[in-house]
Amino acid sequence: MAGEKSRFSLEAFRHVAFDDIGSTNSECLARARAGDPGLLWVTSARQTEGRGRRGRAWTSEPGNLYASLLLIDPAPMERVASLPLAVAVAVHDAVKAILPPGDAALQVKWPNDILINRRKTCGILLEGEPLAGGKRALVIGIGVNIRHMPDSAPYGVTRLSDHGAAISPDELFAHLYQSMALALDLWDEGRGTAEIVRRWREVACGVGERITVNLPDRSLEGRFAGIDDGGLLLLDMGGGQDLPIAAGDVFFMKTE
């Protein structure tokens, strides 16, 4: 209908901030179980139980951004798969807005790791949970290295302060609050997947390069052939067919 406001319009979102919290993701899930309608941001200056993918701990000292967004039934299940790409586009836009112009290459590693000069500066964790009444909660957790970064990681890491971005977590969140609303509006409960995929491809890292994809039960090697129109990673393992992959950890293989 003409003039109808989008479900993801900027004014539809809410925000609650903490000084200390166990996990912003856990707080969102707890509020969802208590009946929160969603479109709620939870941020904290510090987390005591931050976590990353596959249960890894996430460095959560003050000075970085720790934010989670609660969505309730964000899209029909068959269209949710492209949501991580929309999230990546939003976070990329927010970080781009605060980085000074220069030589730093700001890119996205599939599906939603934000890289600066091929080093990870942001972790994104999506968690879902069924709710009473048949609804489903989905939480988007976002941790951005601004002043701190892990001492050890299975991949290269960096922080925004190393690239001339002398900003506070609140300043970065202000950009993220807006860019996420814009990206989700564009995504439109999955109906806008084609445009999100187009935007994601513009900032993709490593297309055409050899990669290793770690799955829960095995590792695969091949050439990163990009993503399909639904956002699945395409792995060229030779033989003329690309293998679509829905979830996995991607590592770029060193070349001589």
From TrEMBL:
GO cellular component, one term: cytoplasm
Record bears the keyword Glycoprotein: no
A molecular function GO annotation: biotin--[biotin carboxyl-carrier protein] ligase activity
CDD domains: BPL
Annotated Gene3D superfamilies: 2.30.30.100, Bira Bifunctional Protein, Domain 2
Keywords: ATP-binding, Biotin, Ligase, Nucleotide-binding
UniProt organism field: Aliirhizobium cellulosilyticum
UniProt-listed PROSITE patterns: BPL_LPL_CATALYTIC
UniProt keyword Cytoplasm, yes or no: no
EC number(s) reported in the record: 6.3.4.15
The name this protein goes by in its record: biotin--[biotin carboxyl-carrier protein] ligase
